[in-house]
Each structure stands twice: as structure tokens, then as C-alpha cells.
Design brief:
Layout: E1 6-9, H1 16-26, E2 29-33, H2 34-44, H3 47-57, H4 64-81, E3 85-89, H5 95-107, E4 114-119, H6 122-130, E5 132-134, E6 141-143, H7 170-194, E7 197-201, H8 206-222
Parallel strand pairs: 1-3, 1-4, 2-3, 4-7
Antiparallel strand pairs: 5-6
Helix pairs in contact: 1-8, 2-3, 2-4, 3-4, 4-5, 6-7
The structure holds zinc ion.
Residues 135, 137-138, 140, 155, 157-158, 160 line the site of zinc ion.
Length: 223
């Protein structure tokens, strides 16, 4: 099957993790998330990894240029290793990184074939996230509307009262959305100009979102 290189964009609550998993099952793709790549590089103890570690240990954000170096060296390794493409998640985040990525891909005769942009109205995101409740004992996640517990606000398994994690509180969710939208608008412009931005409506149910993405990729592979 044809090899494709993809970038996956999506706000919190858009089901990006689920879709990434399905894509990797269906196509010859390696899922590379920026967080995982940084942790892997640190664990490998390379020179790059040691720099990453010094930032992480001091609780500082790893600088953009260092992230770029880690990610690009990993992409090159993956793409030269076999016949799988890459599914990038969490990278690039800036226009500079998008430019650096394009250059690096060109050097190894590769390119990004499509940027899958999961779009979800911020009202829906807030609704999805704000309804989430978790069991403090077993970690099981519920949703007040989509997946409520049998007994009001109690975990089905533990009979412990459910809590709302700080990350899911409306105010925090709104801030995360604002940050995401600001970053993403830049990337959307960039890849729209390149002509590979593919917008997918993430308000559909999960299976329909998958189908929409598969259609886009199948078309690329056929051509
Ligand atoms: Zn529980």
C-alpha cells in the first residue's frame, strides 16, 4: 500500500487520540506525538536527550528549536528505516517549525501529503469537556450526557463520588481552546497555502469522522 506522511491537528475533545489509533491500524503509519518523542529521546540518553532532560527537570518548557531537532531526527530515522509513513501529532506548532519540517522532508525526498484538521466548535468542545467526570479511585471516566454513571454522580465500579478534574473545568478548557486556536490558525494558513489542508468536521460521531479521514487518505494513495 502507498506510503503517506500526515499531520493530525485537533483541539482537546475532538477525539484526536482515537482517530490516530485507528489510522495506525489501517495504514502503514508510525504515530509520532511530540511528547512521546521528547520522552523517548531523554530516555535514550543521547546528547539531544540530555538537553531535553535539563529543561524537563527544571520544569521549563523545552524550547521550540530543540523540539524541532528531536522531532526531525526521529522522523528521518523512521522514514529511512522502512516503508511506513509518519503521523505527526503535536508537531509542528509554529510556522518556523512547519518551515523547518518542510526543508528536512525535502532533503530526504519526502513530503507531508496531507494535514488532517479536525474542527470542532468551541461551544461543543466546552460541552464535551465540561461534562466529564472521573472516579478518584479507579480513574474511570464518565460523561454526564454521553456516558452517565448508573447512580447519580457515583462510580459504577467503586460506588465512590465522581469528581471533575481541574483540567476539565470550563474556565481551564476555555483557556486551552484559546491557546489551541491561536496556534492552529497559523498552521492552517501555512498548509492551506501549500494546498494540503484537509478540514474534517469533528462534530460528527466518531465512526463518521474516521470515514471522512479514510476517504481523504485513500484518495491520496490512489493518485
Ligand atoms: Zn471507580
Amino acid at each position: 500500500m502507498g506510503k503517506v506522511n500526515l499531520i493530525l491537528l485537533g483541539p482537546p475533545g475532538a477525539g484526536k487520540g482515537t482517530q490516530a489509533k485507528r489510522l495506525v491500524e489501517r495504514y502503514p503509519l508510525v504515530h509520532l506525538s511530540s511528547g512521546d518523542m521528547l520522552r523517548a529521546e531523554r530516555a535514550a540518553g543521547s546528547e539531544l536527550g540530555k538537553s531535553v532532560q535539563s529543561f524537563m527537570d527544571s520544569g521549563k518548557l523545552v524550547p521550540d528549536e530543540l523540539v524541532t531537532e528531536v522531532v526531525i531526527s526521529r522522523i528521518k530515522r523512521e522514514l529511512s528505516a522502512g516503508d511506513k509513513g509518519v503521523l505527526l501529532d503535536g508537531f509542528p506548532r509554529t510556522e518556523q517549525q512547519a518551515n523547518d519540517l518542510a526543508k528536512a522532508m525535502e532533503q530526504i525526498n519526502e513530503k507531508i501529503d496531507a494535514v488532517i484538521d479536525l474542527q470542532l466548535d468551541s461551544k461543543v468542545i466546552v460541552e464535551r469537556m465540561a461534562g466529564r467526570r472521573s472516579c478518584p479511585k479507579c480513574g474511570r471516566v464518565y460523561h454526564l450526557k454521553a456516558n452517565p454513571p448508573k447512580n447519580d454522580n457515583m462510580c459504577d465500579d467503586c460506588n465512590v463520588e465522581l469528581i471533575q478534574r481541574p483540567d476539565d473545568k470550563e474556565e481551564v478548557v476555555r483557556k486551552r481552546i484559546a491557546v489551541y486556536e491561536e496556534q492552529t490558525a497559523i498552521l492552517e494558513d501555512f498548509y492551506r497555502k501549500v494546498g494540503i489542508l484537509k478540514v474534517v468536521d469533528a462534530a460528527q460521531d466518531i465512526d463518521s469522522v474516521s470515514e471522512s479521514i479514510f476517504k481523504i487518505i485513500d484518495q491520496i494513495i490512489e493518485n
